[in-house]
Structure formats: C-alpha cells, structure tokens
Amino acid sequence: MLPVDPAGEALSGIMTREITSTIVSALLLSLACGEANALTPPLHFKDDTVGFANMTVFEYENGIAHVRRGESAKQKRYTRRCFVLCRTTMQFKKFARFDPHAPPLDDQNLANRIRRVTRRAAWHDTLPEDQRVVFPGYANFREMSTKRGYIVQRNIGYGWPTYWRIGNGRSLLIQGTGYQEKTHGELNAALKRGDLFVAF
Asked: How far is CA 154 from the centre of its chain?
C-alpha cells in the first residue's frame, strides 16, 4: 500500500524512488496506450492509476545500478511491468466502473472481474457506462489496487510477453526521414486533439 498525504499525493523519499517507474508509466500512459474515443473520459492520475509500486530490479544511487541487498533484496517486489500497467490503466478507464456504495467482492470474484476487463483489447472502443464491468466497494482504480493490490497484480498479466511481441521486430528496421516526419505529425495531431495513442 502506498502511503499518501491528505491531498492524495505520493510521499517523497525512499518510497518515491521505489515508485518512480510506476509514475513514469502512468505519465507515459498518454503515449503508450490504445487510442481513446469520444466516450473515454480524461485520465485523472490520482484516481485512475495503480496504487502499488512497479519497482525496478536494481536499486539506483546517483544513476548507478546496484544489486539489491539486505531487507530490500528479501522483499517480494512487483517489477518490470510498465507496459502491463499502462495497458491495464487504459483498460480500466475504458471498460470498468466503480460503485463505492456496494460491498466489495471476495478475492475469486474480484479476480474474475479483473480478467474480464484485461482480456479486452486496450485499443477497442470505450464501453458505455451501463456495459462496463462493475467493481463494487471502491470509488476508483487507485483505491481498489491499493487495498487489493495482490489480487490486481496476479490478474492483469505478466510483463515478459511484451518483450516477445511480433510487432517489436519493426524496431530493428531503419525507417527514413519521411516516415519519421509523418509519425511526428500524427503524434502532434493526436496530442492537439487530446487523444491517447499507441507509441512504441
């Protein structure tokens, strides 16, 4: 569980270093997730992102990586899931809704509903409110993933498959300046419209 101050901001210090990749992932969400349509509401960082750390494998001091030692090495960590968390954030934004007034689900039913959301492709159109998967007992994704982080982590997918996507092969191809200019123009146009889009 992330400690938060009354304003809902993550505390600084050691925890800030531990959650850096989660924050970066969420900030890059607008660049790394499926395209939104007119039904997709704007992303609110304090409500729509995960409430647990996506930690790095190594510890960093002054920009230099070190193997974790002592208590830090023994700690069970959720690591290297940037793409998974970006995708999941978009999926919950587009395909889920929350009902804070109803009682929360047990672990099995919560896991089933999480998988119903994460099995939908993030690039699919946003569902209308009445067709979204309902998560009772929580006001938003941040609250649910803070209180039930283990269940969320175990049901949103693994990080390693993103490294083996067939589409990753295109990153080895050298594109000309025309392609870069066209892509740059498309990204600028999407940003100007306030859209979310896929960028690798």
From this structure: 14
Q: CA-CA distance, 50 to 73, in Å (whole number)?
A: 23
The model's pTM:
0.66
What are 154-158's contacts with CB under 8 Å, separation 24+?
154/111, 155/111, 155/114, 155/115, 155/118, 156/84, 156/85, 156/88, 156/114, 156/118, 157/84, 157/87, 157/88, 157/118, 158/81, 158/84
Residue 145 to residue 95: CA distance in whole angstroms = 16
Continuous segment of H or E residues that includes residue 83: helix 82-95
pLDDT in tens, 60-71: 888 888 887 777
Euclidean distance between CA atoms 103 and 14, whole angstroms: 34
Query: Tokens standing for 187?
Result: 């990204």
β-pairing, 59-61 with 96-99? unpaired
pLDDT in tens, 9-59: 433 344 444 444 444 444 444 444 444 555 677 888 899 999 988 877 777
